[in-house]
Design brief:
Elements (H helix, E strand, L loop, with lengths): L6 H17 L6 H10 L4 H8 L6 H13 L5 H9 L4 H12 L24 H16 L7 H10 L3 H8 L4 H9 L8
Helix pairs in contact: 1-2, 1-8, 2-8, 3-8, 4-9, 7-8, 8-10
Length: about 190
């Protein structure tokens, strides 16, 4: 499948690996894909993000992804659902971090032992699903190649932290589609 990726899509995938390495993560996840998309310039995906006002709010997205990582990758919707069952995720995170240090629930290895050497990082199931979904998005649109815009569209349709974070910043599948393909007028929320 990787041979169908454009140069920009390949850069997102390799950028996601670099994001994972920098953070000390064991695996490359969907948040790393989003961070790599945010770092891109002069591509269709970066154009869509800039048109929707995300270029100047990158740090806010990074913070939201970091907070979710501290909650062991739980989205705010998942944390809210647990709260409905009487489980206070913020309290659990606070207690774990009190004993094991800040970021202990993130799954990252930063500051813990030797950590993982630079090199191969496996992709999480969700990240793999996103890349497969990007192929489906491209095929559905009649595109022969998978671009970074298809990865962005796939991230907006897959439940989880990246889609929730993007939606909180006014970036949804509908707004991205409108910006990329001119189907109506897109407005950031």
């Amino acid at each position: 499948m990787f041979e169908r990726f454009t140069k920009d899509a390949r850069a997102v995938v390799t950028g996601a690996v670099e994001q994972a390495e920098r953070s000390g993560a064991r695996t490359v996840d969907t948040g790393h894909l989003l961070l790599a998309l945010l770092d891109r310039e002069a591509s269709r995906g970066s154009f869509a993000l800039a048109a929707l006002g995300l270029a100047e709010r990158k740090e806010s997205v990074r913070e939201a992804l970091g907070e979710a990582r501290r909650r062991a990758g739980l989205s705010q919707a998942e944390a809210d659902a647990l709260a409905g069952l009487g489980i206070d995720v913020a309290e659990i995170v606070a207690r774990v971090e009190e004993v094991h240090g800040v970021g202990a629930m993130s799954g990252d290895r930063k500051g813990r032992g030797k950590g993982r050497r630079s090199g191969h990082r496996p992709f999480s199931r969700e990240a793999k699903d996103t890349l497969v979904r990007s192929l489906r998005v491209a095929v559905a649109r009649g595109d022969r190649h998978i671009g970074d815009e298809h990865i962005l569209l796939a991230l907006t349709t897959q439940p989880g932290v990246p889609a929730e974070t993007l939606a909180d910043h006014g970036v949804t599948n509908l707004t991205v589609t409108r910006v990329l393909y001119g189907e109506g007028e897109a407005k950031a929320g």
